[in-house]
Amino acid sequence: MSALSETDVIDISKETEHNNTQATTQSTITPPATERYKYLVFIGRFQPFHLGHKAVIDTALNRADKVIILIGSANLPRSLRNPFTVEERAEMITGAYPKHEASRIYCVGLDDALYNDTRWLQYVQKSVRSVTGDLQEDIALIGHSKDSSSYYLSLFPYWQSISVSNHDNLSSTPIRDSYLLGATPTPERIPDASRIVLDRFKKTEEYQYLQEEAWFIDDFKKQWQNTPYPPTFMTVDAVVVQSGHILLVERRNLPGRGLWSLPGGFLDQDETLFDACIRELREETNLQVSDLALRRSRHSQHTFDDPYRSARGRTITQAYFFHLKNDPRGLPEVKGGDDALKAFWLPLAELDPKKMFEDHYAIIIKMVGL
What is the pTM (predicted TM-score) of this model? Predict the structure, then answer.
């Protein structure tokens, strides 16, 4: 779960339902404004860190001895949604404060665990404990107010919450999108420390690549701008495993050029989802397995629908898990084709989220059960 809203922070305040989960009495009560804590925890992606985020930390510094910033979407490749590393975001955050205040701020990278709330909670707990040493310490959450909050509150029943109003309705998304298209964020939206990091990054080859991808996505979306409703795309992905290896491709084109991904693609109008998966698998990998053996190896299927999983727009994918039988002759031959620069077998132990396209690492973890 990267389970953070497009405002890029955990939103905590009003008591509302989400997925039929209710927060406990302890966590839905906002403590008195005079109450102090040893630790306040602020969870967000900060892509980039803006003055709205800073307003939350300002409040936290006034109400706690120490402030723990959990910087989400750590250990992922740079992308349009996550262009900045944990180190760069930590520099934006601590650089916005004088040394005596920055010394009370602890920035910790937090991995995503899309489609697995339990694993994400484990990551949060470990990250907080890396600073506090004990989850039974005097700890509370702090964040923006938003109506969809009780679901997040229910995930942390032992920690109270402090709600802070959204400063000038600031959101990272429009700042980030315009920046990647070449604009310079105005000083009314980001601190000087963030501007320094953004200006420096703008001079790198990595920025140039992301800007190329941003314009590609902008042009892609213009094809649909006159439709009566925003389109929802349907794709398929093949998770093929044999003898502790998974079949991957290296992407040839934008978006995600050069990243590793599962073989897959868009659904044609005249085919079933399963037939589309078989077709895309054949086109991109030329997998040397008979059609009968491949279809018999189908193990399971799952729908992946995180609203922000693709920069191209709302994209739902159906993944199929194929567990091929072990073969003493070795792994079947593969060769990249169509949109794949190359196809290859990778030992499962060598999977690296920093090299994976979109949410494909999370899909693999979910389907294979790693």
Answer: 0.88
